[in-house]
Recover the amino acids of this structure.
């Protein structure tokens, strides 16, 4: 398990429900979310891939591609997608590609192996790993969940909003931030510079240390 | 960067604002959340550690200990805690320990290094890494966020609730699950067994594959 934040995602060729391509070509000049699931035709995974189908438009609007992945083969994915689409209950289609990795080559390289789970043949299974990859092809944020805990795609969307905000302005988002909430100005920006960059102003929190590092603004 | 889910957390001796102890002793027979922050007296970190101070009781109620960590020294932590407590604005105290790791020994072993961030001396800085450790001292779930994105402690609490639920019953929690929502029955549990285990019943979703793997119940 090597891949972590700051690392470049390996430019692997993947075999998917939308054909073969290289991961970097999918990312392109935008962003991508690569997420694994333990197995097709299993309960939590069905709810997760259905939610991602429903949220695809929200991610696309923000320039973010989705890529699913498990160790099942393409035929299994194709059959299972019918179940996922039925479960969404809204005529919503799975319009993002899903990688087939029956030889477990990709899950090893992308730090997506769950050492606690094996299939009936004793083969490795993926965890619920999710990497958000930036235009520089580097992993910006990773979630690693076990089989028993379905992810929270609202948190994934929140994280994307934060990453886009930070990439555009010299700001960061505070704990439990939601889009529309105030953001904080990065420590590297001096007060003089901040006045130029945020002409509508910012509010510095008065702290016992008398240091002026906690500055809120809106962007 | 090695530590990932399924791995045993190294039993390191840590120097903290509550004295020296070994990580496994903190976990004990319960659970622990070990979370790093890039630096004391910085904006996002202050909002995060304040939120953890406010949520401590919620975690304690569930048998979960908290342990903060950065590469600043103990004197810095002690001074900074005054700022954090002032920021909570509610008289709330930082009652959990914070590790001092000025030699960067611990962040390396716990996969908490952010390769994109350096301090003014060129030293490594921690990412916003957060590991949830179970009673078996293994990492159950990991969040790795960059410096610019403050974490969502509601998602951390949700994940803890899911892990506790799954540890107690043969269930898993679906995508975007919240406490009180229905859970799904694990694939390894047969329908016969499920009838015994969940005497109040369960609902099987009718899917195109005609496979009966998506079974919701309440526990």
């Amino acid at each position: 398990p090597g891949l972590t934040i700051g690392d470049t995602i390996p430019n692997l060729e993947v075999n998917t429900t939308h054909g073969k391509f290289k991961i970097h070509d999918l990312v392109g000049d935008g962003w991508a979310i690569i997420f694994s699931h333990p197995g097709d035709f299993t309960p939590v995974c069905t709810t997760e891939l259905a939610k991602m189908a429903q949220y695809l438009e929200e991610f696309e609007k923000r320039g973010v591609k989705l890529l699913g992945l498990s160790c099942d083969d393409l035929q299994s994915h194709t059959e299972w997608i019918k179940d996922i689409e039925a479960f969404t209950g809204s005529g919503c289609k799975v319009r993002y590609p899903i990688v087939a990795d029956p030889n477990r080559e990709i899950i090893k390289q992308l730090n997506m192996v769950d050492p606690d789970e094996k299939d009936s043949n004793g083969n490795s299974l993926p965890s619920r790993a999710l990497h958000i990859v930036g235009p520089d092809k580097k992993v910006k944020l990773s979630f690693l969940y076990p089989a028993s805990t379905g992810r929270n795609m609202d948190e994934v969307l929140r994280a994307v909003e934060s990453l886009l905000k930070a990439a555009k302005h010299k700001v960061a988002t505070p704990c439990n931030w939601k889009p529309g909430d105030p953001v904080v100005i990065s420590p590297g920006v001096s007060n003089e510079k901040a006045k130029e960059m945020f002409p509508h102003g910012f509010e510095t929190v008065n702290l016992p240390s008398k240091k002026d590092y906690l500055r809120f603004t809106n962007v």
In short: The mean pLDDT of chain A is 96.
